[in-house]
Amino acid sequence: MDFAIGLSLANGISGEINRIVGDFRRLDGVTDEIMNKLSTFKNISIAGGLLAGAGIKGLQATADALGECISEAEKLQSAQVTLEIKTFGNDLLDQTKLPQIKAEMEEINDMAMDISLNTVFNSQEITESMTSLVKGGMSKEMVQNGGAEANAYFAQINGVNAISTADATVKFAAGFQLEEDQVKDSLNLITKYADASTSDALAIQQNIGNTAGSAMSVWRGRDNMQIAEETIQLVAATKYTAGDEASAATYVRNFLDQAGKTTFTDPQTKMMEQAGWLQDGKSIFIDYNTGMLKNASELEKILEDTAEKMDAVEFNNLVDIFFGDRGKKTAQALAQKGGATDLAVLKAGADREFFSYYV
């Protein structure tokens, strides 16, 4: 409530009393009694610091609160100015563009207020997270059309500040080339798959951007959301064998890079022939109708079938030679049919989380 007063002071400093009272109406938990008290302050005088009609005790109590509120309003104003500079840059030097910039900033500031009213973050924190998104390279349009909101909800779910997740949100969205309306859904997928496994959603979000480039390359031409979901699945599965999400993301990247290759060393070729991974001299991991890597479920089926035909020592030697010391961790996870690392099991668990984590 104190912060809302501070925000209202910033909004109503020119005497827009209706705007001040209106701000309070947007807050959850504001009772009719509180609104009636606020409505009595028809003759608020910001200049001079008086609240006529409040009485001596009321004036003192309100004055004490206003000291803190003014300080909060100043912090918010500073955050808004920083966001404006980062968003519009040199356009602020063009006098002809200032009216349009002012109008757009009003929309952005109102949006920050709306997000803050639906999350645990105040408007200053949301504004600062927007600045981080813009600094990271997210377009103003994406920030406004879902990026800032998705980032805030994801941060709230994971119990961290919205600023701390902003950089990874930018990398995630850019890495998978997501559209504005896909950012929220894709972050939702991270949370669902984390809940369906032993993974931590925040840790996946912070590291999966390092895998996105490889995934988009080997699966080029497929739907971006499908690519994002299958990459999340692979990281969640690999976490069981990797031990942590940062390592898992690295191992998945190495796995995809190697699986997507069409030329091999002599030792690799020999092992592939023995395992039945070559058909007419070509890797069975590649879909030659598209020239791209087969999807994650198809790769998993190949590895499961191979593991069933070999003893553990032979299989581990095969994936070590073919996928390397890192990529083999993902291969080993996928080969465990029906277990916690099985992609179908993970997807079933994620699908049970049928509700959206975001309003």
How are the elements arranged and paired?
Layout: H1 2-12, H2 17-25, H3 32-39, E1 44-45, E2 50-51, H4 55-88, H5 98-117, H6 123-136, H7 140-157, H8 162-175, H9 183-195, H10 201-207, H11 209-218, H12 224-242, H13 245-259, H14 266-275, E3 278-279, E4 282-283, E5 286-287, E6 292-293, H15 296-309, H16 312-334, H17 343-352
Antiparallel strand pairs: 1-2, 3-4, 5-6
Helix pairs in contact: 1-2, 1-4, 4-6, 5-6, 5-7, 6-7, 6-8, 7-8, 7-9, 8-10, 8-11, 9-10, 9-12, 9-17, 10-13, 11-12, 11-13, 12-13, 12-16, 13-16, 15-16
Output the keywords.
disordered N terminus, two-stranded antiparallel ribbon, 359 residues, 6 strands, 3% strand, mainly alpha, single chain, two-stranded antiparallel sheet, 17 helices
Explain what the structure shows.
The structure is a single chain. The chain is mainly alpha-helical. It is 69% helix and 3% strand. The chain is built from 17 helices and 6 strands. The chain has helices spanning 2-12, 17-25, 32-39, 55-88, 98-117, 123-136, 140-157, 162-175, 183-195, 201-207, 209-218, 224-242, 245-259, 266-275, 296-309, 312-334, 343-352, and strands at residues 44-45, 50-51, 278-279, 282-283, 286-287, 292-293. The strands form 3 sheets. It has a two-stranded antiparallel ribbon. Strands 3-4 form a two-stranded antiparallel ribbon. Strand 1 (44-45) and strand 2 (50-51) form a beta hairpin. Helix 5 (98-117) crosses helix 6 and helix 10 (201-207) crosses helix 13 (245-259).
